[in-house]
Specification:
Layout lengths: L9 E11 L4 E8 L2 E8 H7 L6 E6 L12
Antiparallel strand pairs: 1-2, 1-4, 2-3
InterPro entries: Mo/tungstate-bd_C_term_dom, Mop_domain, Transp-assoc_OB_typ1
Protein name: Transporter
Organism: Duganella radicis
Length: 73
């Protein structure tokens, strides 16, 4: 499957650095040029997508809420 377009604007290309497997859900750490992005997805999805350490992926971030924290004084 190839995706030619998607409406998600926050996209981070990277490689999977680590997968922490769980019985139902797993954590996937993606190393990007901006830092590590962590996704929690079903363990079945990891198998279905054939994801493994070193796989090139795009982390898509879509949220209905963005929080802002002030740095310094």
């Amino acid at each position: 499957m190839a995706i030619s377009e998607i409406n998600v604007r926050n996209q981070f290309r990277g490689k999977i650095k680590e997968i922490i497997f769980g019985p139902v859900v797993s954590e996937v750490d993606v190393e990007t040029q901006h830092g590590i992005v962590t996704s929690v997805i079903t363990s079945r999805s990891i198998q279905d997508l054939g994801l493994k350490v070193g796989s090139e992926v795009i982390a898509l971030v879509k949220s209905t809420e963005v929080s802002i924290a002030k740095i310094g004084s």
